[in-house]
Design goal:
The chain has seven helices and two strands; from the N terminus they run H-H-H-H-H-E-E-H-H. It is mainly α. Strands 1-2 form a two-stranded antiparallel sheet. It starts with a helix and ends with a helix.
Length: 148
């Protein structure tokens, strides 16, 4: 990926700026590929993330703050994400009768089944996205990204 070609400039870009632009372009490319992979399931990347978190709870309910803490993309509208997943029948919410502020969220069996299908599609997308990188390169990239 040639940054200068993509942003159509002939001026030299300082290394720091070029690096950040490069990271943003790669992020966008990955995001587009993942969004396209999840589109047939009518689920956003954030909704997919919520479903994975809930599956990881292994049957224990999660509350909104737990979901927010564990989200890859931090956002303030987790309630809206959960509401959309409820409408799709992929999660259910239980409100505590004695404390209406206490809400517990679980993944449904339908949510687990759909998530398994999404996992398969995501594994294929990951292979396509990372096809040009060998395992040692991926390990090195992860070491470099850990520096952030």
């Amino acid at each position: 990926m040639n940054v200068e070609e993509i942003i159509k400039t002939e001026k030299p870009i300082p290394l720091e700026s070029r690096t950040l632009i490069h990271l943003m372009l790669v992020h966008n490319k990955i995001n587009e590929a993942i969004t396209a992979t999840l589109k047939p399931f009518d689920v956003s990347l954030q909704q997919f993330n919520v479903l994975r978190i809930l599956r990881g709870q292994q049957g224990k309910p999660a509350n909104l703050s737990t979901l927010n803490e564990r989200m890859v993309t931090k956002m303030s509208n987790t309630t809206r994400l959960v509401d959309k997943l409820i409408l799709k029948g992929l999660v259910h919410r239980i409100t505590c009768p004695s404390n209406r502020r206490k809400v517990e969220i679980n993944i449904t069996s339908e949510g687990k089944q759909m998530l398994e299908k999404m996992d398969t599609a995501m594994r294929e997308a990951e292979k396509k996205i990372l096809k040009n990188l060998a395992k040692p390169e991926l390990e090195q990239l992860n070491l470099l990204l850990n520096l952030f």
